[in-house]
Amino acid sequence: MLTLYDQFREHDPDSRLRKNYDEQLAHHIADMKRDRLLECKVEHNERNNLIERELKYQQQRAILFWGLLSLTFICIFAIHRYRLLRQRHKDILLQNYEYAELIKNSKYQDKPNILDAEIANRFHELSAQDTHPRAEEWQALQDEINKFHPQLLTTLQQQYAMHQPDQTMTEQERHVVCLLVIRCSPLQMSVLLVCTKSNVSNLRRRLYNKLTGKDGSGTDLDRYITKMCEE
Fold first, then answer.
1. Most buried pick, 213, 216, 220, 225, via CB within 10 A?
2. Which is nearest to 184 in space by CA: 196, 175, 173, 171?
3. Residues 119 and 220 placed together within one structural domain of the fold
4. Could you give the angle at the alpha carbon of 100 between the alpha carbons of 95 and 102, nearest 5°?
5. pTM for the complete prediction?
């Protein structure tokens, strides 16, 4: 009695060869698919690596560009700042020279004057050095002014209270008066008071109004204090 396989073999004597061929073909197709998948994976990885390198290159270019741009702005700002400070220093030196000439003026040689005081010269030196006075230096200047002009600050405070009831001069306002007494310019005052020239102008203008009850400019206050010192 023949088995089912023998029967099939009798009808198809090449079935074993066909089976082997089919198996080899299936293995070959599977190998081709696997190789193709590997090739696709390699191509995908290479493409991703290329994109990553391009992005990294663009990022480096952007960083370099913004770095150079920032450095350029910093250099321009530094040069501009240096020129401003240099011009400011020249202006202060010129004003210190004018101050020295003022001391030599015969108008101030007939009697001792606050401009001859060491502390007054000290404040002019501080302005030339772009340095801020210490609290004890402010007090020393005020004490020296009281020696040469004993009634000045008291009189100014009375005038202040007359137009500003129940108020007293602020420390900053007293400093402004002290600097005007020793003939500091607005530029020098901006250094010593640690503020801008416009702030100095506003301080002087407002103080003039508080002392006299009149509207005026910073220059009006300068003349007002100078006149009181000469009386």
1. 225
2. 175
3. yes
4. 90
5. 0.58
